[in-house]
Each structure stands twice: as structure tokens, then as C-alpha cells.
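User: For a benchmark we're assembling, each entry needs the component sequences followed by a predicted structure for the full assembly. Here are entry 17's components. Please fill in the structure.
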Amino acid sequence: MAEHVLIKDVGKHVDEEVILSGWVRNKRSSGKIQFIILRDGTAEIQAVAFHPNLTDSQFEKCENLTMESSVKIWGKVKKDERSPTGYELDLTNIEIIQIAAEYPIQKKSHGVNFLLDNRHLWVRSRKQHALLKIRHTVYYAITTYLNENGFYRYDSPILTPNACEGTTTLFKVPYFDIGKAYLSQSGQLYAETGIMSLGRVYDFGPTFRAEKSKTRKHLTEFWMMDAEAAFVKHKENMKIQEELIRFVIRQVIKKNENELKTLKRDIETLRKADAPFKVITHKEAIDLLQTKGYDIGYDEDFGAEEEEAITEDAEIPVFVEKWPKHIKSFYMKIDPDDKDISLCDDLIAPEGFGEIIGGSEREDDYKILKKRMKEEELPMDEYQWYLDLRRYGTVPHSGFGVGLERLIGWMSGVRHIRQTIPFPRMINRVSP
RNA sequence: UCCACAGUAGCUCAGUGGUAGAGCAGGUGGCUGUUAACCACUUUGCCGGGGGUUCGAGUCCCUCCUGUGGAGCCA
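Assistant: Structure for entry 17:
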């Protein structure tokens, strides 16, 4: 008898007796026969309890099962064409670990707020389970790609003395005698310090924005990967971003076929995105929007609708590069060929999933950077360490930040990113 | 912060100014192949809070609260 078999592996044990452990997803009964849907985190299987083959006590235990009860089940694996998974278990014995109390999440549809209130239980549902597996794959794929391409993990601090880009969107926390600290809204500036030691680095951690955003693309706590590389310039930076994202797409298709099916995500749509990305300049993007009838000028940022319009006809992601410097950050390098342009890029996912990467070549000239920081009225004392990087052996370098949840949202075809993280934090929700 | 919409049973919702409803869940019983199983019976209410109009308000008005969708900002 094979003990502690995972449901995903039952195919290796056809006509053998196995022991499975898991939770009861659902139960149906018809007099002398009961159907128990068992899940164990790896997959699901239907266990069939047929009264004439069991003792009264065993059958009664099956009758008493409630949704989400935890059990250990003995049975023989059978191939069965009637089963959606191809296999069934002929139950021979059952041990109840716990009869679950009345489970709040039902087989019928629920409202968003109720599900979020029960997020600690909602994660067990099929779709959420699939999304969490895809999240794992995306996370793992990003770090695998970086590890295989010479990037060292170099973690940025979460408690920071001040903002990367202004203080209005920072969460403030009390901090001993110093008075206050802030939760990081980006690890990028710290990542830049790492490349002067390690050449190529990345951080990957939670970041925080106290912005009162209330859209399907925003969380107040989200995960971001910041990669930074010495001696890499603007065009090569975009190439790294493209290779990374295409690697992620391939990994998700390879490892999460079942999950994509559960989510009704069309795999072909994803496969088509694994192709050379389109590159347009900000100016070309504005031209495109103007021909589509949008009232937008060359010195403006896009709104949500415009961002979607840029990729609405595209099956592959679009890089929008070389933005006017005044709508982009101070640390971005000015284009040597055009003093009003920053050497930066936004990567916009197709199908309206929005911006998933922001990247740029960084300003490596001490004087230019200092001048720009003064223009932005940044507290120079706090940023002296950042300026120091341009005094002690400055080099051309570039980097980018990937928004994990948005990338997962695109991969899985889920419009609202609150489902792509185990416990979403939003403007009016910090629990459970 | 702004705009729009919503709040009625555990959940999802219906409810024309005149007795508070359905489906699901829960409970009891039935059924040897169910796939959100089905069939019969059955328990469950501060109609978000406060104020007003009215003989009478779940329904109309004001206000507050909570949530949802979107905008702005961004990843």
C-alpha cells in the first residue's frame, strides 16, 4: 500500500491501494453511494464510497462529512472515463481528522466584499488556488532568469529615511529617538549602490504606496522586483526586460497549463506575446493616440484609457521609450541627443493589463544629477549617499522595476490585481 | 479626493407608498453514478444608522456610514 500519495500522482498507482490526505471540497450522495471530492493542494480526485463494500461505521463517517473537513482516505485508484481528471478512488476506509464547521464560502457565487472578508478561506477556492500557483511560477521565473544572467540578490531596506520620489505617498512609522521612518515605495536607489559592488543586482520585496488609488491596478502594498546593471545602457536595458518577460511567459505556459485552464485563460494569447516586443517613442505614442482621436499633447503622460488604447490592437507588449523629462523621475539619464528627453521606457502589457515595467538608464553625471535634484527640491542631505555613487567611480548603468501583481494579472487574465496576492491591502482594507 | 451605483435572511438577490419574499447554504427524510447532483419538508430578518414627508415608508426626501465600479497618481 502506497502511503501519503499526492493526488497529482495517482496516475502512477492505477489499480493500487493508496492513502490520500486532504480536504473535502464537496460531497454528493445518492442513497447507497457517496461521491467525495478530495483536494490536497496538488490536485483533486473523486472518492467513491459504495455502501455494500464498506462497514456501516465507515459509510456513516462519509455521510457525516461537511465541506472542508480534513480526512485521510484509503482506496484503490481506478481509471474512469466519467471523471474530469481521468481517475477515481474506490474508497475502502476513511479516517476523519476534523469535521469542519459550516463553511462560509458556498458553491454559489459571492460578492467581492464577502470573499475579501473571508480571504483566509477564499484562497482554497479553485480559481484562487490556480492564481497562487501562477504567482509562484512568475516569482520563481523572475528570480531564475536573473540568477542565470549574472544578477545577485541584493535586498533593499523596507524602513527608509525618506522618499524615492516625494513624500506625499509614503506610509510614516514611528522610529525610536529618530522620530520617524517611512515604508519603502521602491528599492531602486539602494539597488544602484549594489552594482558598484556586485555589477548586477536585484531586489525583490514588498513596497508601499500611501496613494489613495482606487482602481483594479493598484494596491497599497505590492511586490516589486528592481533590477540594476552596471555598464548597461538604455537599449540593452530594454533587451533585458524583454528577455525576462518572455522567459516568464514561457515558464507560465510550461508549468501552469492546468491553472490557466481553470482560469479560462487562453494559452494561445499568451504564446503570441512571446515575440519581439514593439518599441515606440513617447512622441510616436502621442501621434498614435491623436490619430485615434484622443486630445493629448506631446508633453503629457497617458491616462488609463490612453494606455489601453496603445496596446488595444497589439498581441505583444509595447515599449514606450524616451519620455519628456519633466514627467519622469530625476534619476533618469537625459538623452545626449535631446536635452528634453529621458532615456527611459515603460512596458505596457497587451489586452489592457497596463504598465508592468518602468525602467531607465540612470543619470551618472554628478553635476547634472545634483542640478536635477535641486530643481525637484529634494532634501540634499538625505540623498548625499546617492550622489556619492557619482563621485566614486561612476559608470553608465540602467535598471527597471517589475510590478509582480500586474504581471501575474496579465499572465492569468485576471483583471483586478487584488486576487493575485494572498492578502491584498487596499485603501479601505487591511484585514484579514 | 472627485464622479456614478449599491446596502433587504448566513450567501446571492427580487420586492408598483398598503401583511417581509425567492434561490442557495443549514436541518430532517428519500435516492446505486453524482459533476455548483436531484426530489420533498423545514429554521432564519434592527430592510446600513439617524432625521423628515405621509393615515401608512424596505419603497419618497435630507444626512451620515459602509461597500462596489471608474478617474487622478502609479508598478
